[in-house]
Amino acid sequence: MTDFPHAMLGEIYQQPAAIRRTFDLYLDGQSLDAKAFAPLAGWLNPRGEVLIAASGSSRHAGLAAEVTLEDLCGLAVDVEYSSEYSCRPAANPRNPSVIVISQSGETSDTLAALRNARLGGQATLAIANVDGSTMLREASAAMPIGAGPELAIPATKSFTCQLTALYLLALYQAQRLGALDASQIEQRIAELRALPDAIESQLDPWRATMTSLAARYRNATTFLYLGRGVHYAIAREGALKMKEASYVEAEGYPAGELKHGPNALVGEQVPLIVLATVDRSLEASVLRYDKTLQLLEDMSRQGAHVIALANTGDHDVAALATDCVYVEPASEHLLPIPEVIPLQLFSYFMAIEHGVDVDRPRNLSKAVIEA
User: Fold this and answer.
1) pTM, whole model, 2 decimals?
2) pLDDT at 265
3) 122 phi and psi angles, rounded to 5 deg
4) Thinking of the domain 7-193, which architecture would CATH place it in?
5) What does the alpha-carbon distance between residue 347 and residue 350 come to, in Å, rounded to a whole number?
6) 42, 238, 244, 246: least surrounded by Cβ within 10 Å?
7) Average pLDDT of span 189-214
8) 254-274 per-position pLDDT tens digit
9) What pLDDT sits at residue 168?
10) Span 307-312, mean pLDDT?
11) Kind of pairing between the strands at 124-128 and 141-144
12) In degrees rounded to 5, what are phi and psi of residue 83?
């Protein structure tokens, strides 16, 4: 960490190594490690119903997992705020399997949600970063992640490792359910394994770009982050990082909801951050991309200031955005992992522009252990 002025920046740069450590927990070469996943064999509800309970960044990982588990496995997934779910009656007639996600494994609301689910007789799976944490010990099954100690309060490497573990969980369930065949699983694992190298090659260019953009947009009063499908989760996470790291107001919305009210806010001091990446091999992703291009055209005519995240070499998005940040292409359900990283960097450099102690933002703690 000595090469970086703050723990948060160092932890952003540690993400490729952290993701590789998470691979080591669950992969055996180009295959899923049968021994690592054996404790999950009886975890899934017979009807394929899953409820994810989490808070903060962990909930945003759950929102991405909702789309991935539904798309790749055909499961029926709901995502709840832990603080809401833990206050509901324990008995749930649907009896879904419950996933709880937490960096510390001690988050009070999420621990209460886990215990609530157990009281109702539901199978539970905990995903957490701290070995020996209460959630990993108390859940029916556990998936620790390999992020390692995370010192900065804003979650960075723990978030991308959560996304990695949840993607591996989706591959495991897809394999068990026959939703993906062996060659499809192997292809997706190969792409996943290539991701850390791709991220490493982009970190310095992203750092330079986001340093410049933070200086340019330092006087913005609010940012509106927009994404569709699995990218909506990353819009939410990008907005949360901006709020907690720099104290600048930010909100994440599904891109199609902008014109249903939030567009009234857009102006000189309220720029848009639009996730406009695409997986051209997936028809649904192309459809979302085309709709996002139309939105960018409308916003260009409106005179909005737009920072867009786009695939490297995408001239169509670049022509419509005020500024464009490039992300190397990846498959739809893996794109959230690399595309969140420039947003982490943007929040970091906005915090520096505003003189914030980025590792210790006011009124926040690393683990929320009191409800």
Assistant:
1) 0.96
2) 87
3) -90, 145
4) 3-Layer(aba) Sandwich (3.40)
5) 5
6) 42
7) 98
8) 999 999 999 888 999 999 999
9) 98
10) 98
11) parallel
12) -65, -25
Task: Determine contact, residues 355/251, Cβ cutoff 8 Å.
Answer: no
For residue 311, give both structure tokens: 């695939």
Question: Class assignment of domain 198-353?
Answer: alpha beta
* Rounded-to-integer distance, Cα 114 and Cα 123, Å: 10
The count of C-alpha atoms lying within 13 angstroms of the C-alpha of 244, restricted to the half-sphere facing its C-beta, is 22
CA-wise closest residue to 165 among 51, 62, 55: 62
pLDDT of residue 1: 43
* Residue 101 scores a pLDDT above 70: yes
Who's near 7: CB < 8 A, 6+ residues apart? 1, 151, 152, 359
Q: List the strands of the sheet with 124-128, edge to edge.
A: 76-81, 49-54, 97-102, 124-128, 141-144
Show me where the domains of the chain are located: 7-193, 198-353
Rounded Cα distance, 197 and 45, in Å: 36
Query: Which tens digits make up the pLDDT trace of 61-88?
Result: 999 999 999 999 999 999 999 999 878 7
Joined tokens for residue 235:
């819009």
Q: Tell me the one-letter amino acid at 106.
A: E
7-193 and 198-353 share one fold:
yes
User: Tokens standing for 271?
Assistant: 């720029």
